[in-house]
Design a protein that fits this description.
Order of helices and strands: EEEEEEEEEEEEEEEE
Oligomer: single chain
Shape: globular
Mean pLDDT: 93
Distance between the termini: 34 Å
Low-confidence stretches: none
Helix content: under 10%
Strand content: over 45%
Length: 176
């Protein structure tokens, strides 16, 4: 059993027994035109008012309910995500979001792509720039990081099976 907190919402960590199964999805939100707008000459343009806010859904199942009944869902909350995000590049110097987890277990880590396969490689951080150590014959690099974002959230419990002592739950959250 791991003692590492997978994720937290407004400082409340979910005990291991409440997340025996856990998954997280991400969607990037933006106010932009899609499909692109066509100009009179046929060229395409995408107009963007704002972008790159995250929407995430975390679902879990365990032997006990999640412990979020005391949270104030009318206020913004800090969400420490458990699901990693990846930024890839042809360069080994990669800019990553400042809104990320800083605990040792969740520190950004890097890799190189060699012959189409991932090869772990150390990463050095300088501010929001992750520099992955150069690997011979690498055709690209990537950095995995874990978001820590301020969100509005909604929690729900579902699929409660008292006979089997199974509790399902879900958090929907959008970055403010």
């Amino acid at each position: 059993m791991s003692t590492q907190s997978y994720f937290e919402l407004d400082g409340v960590a979910i005990p291991y027994e409440a997340h025996l199964e856990i998954s997280q999805t991400y969607e990037v939100l933006k106010a932009s035109t899609w499909p692109p707008i066509r100009m009179m000459d046929g060229s395409a343009k995408v107009q963007t008012a704002w972008g790159n806010k995250l929407k995430t859904t975390i679902t879990g199942r365990g032997w006990m309910p999640a412990a979020w009944d005391g949270l104030n869902y009318n206020q913004p909350m800090l969400l420490k995500c458990a699901g990693g995000r990846v930024i890839g590049s042809q360069s080994n110097a990669i800019s990553i979001p400042s809104a990320r987890r800083s605990e040792t277990f969740y520190a950004p880590h890097g890799y190189a792509i060699v012959n189409g396969e991932r090869v772990d490689s150390p990463v050095n951080m300088a501010g929001d720039t992750a520099t992955v150590d150069i690997v011979a014959s690498a055709t690209g690099y990537g950095v995995i990081y874990y978001p820590e974002i301020t969100v509005y959230a909604k929690a729900s419990e579902s699929n409660i099976n008292l006979a089997a002592a199974e509790f399902g739950w879900q958090i929907d959250a959008e970055e403010i």
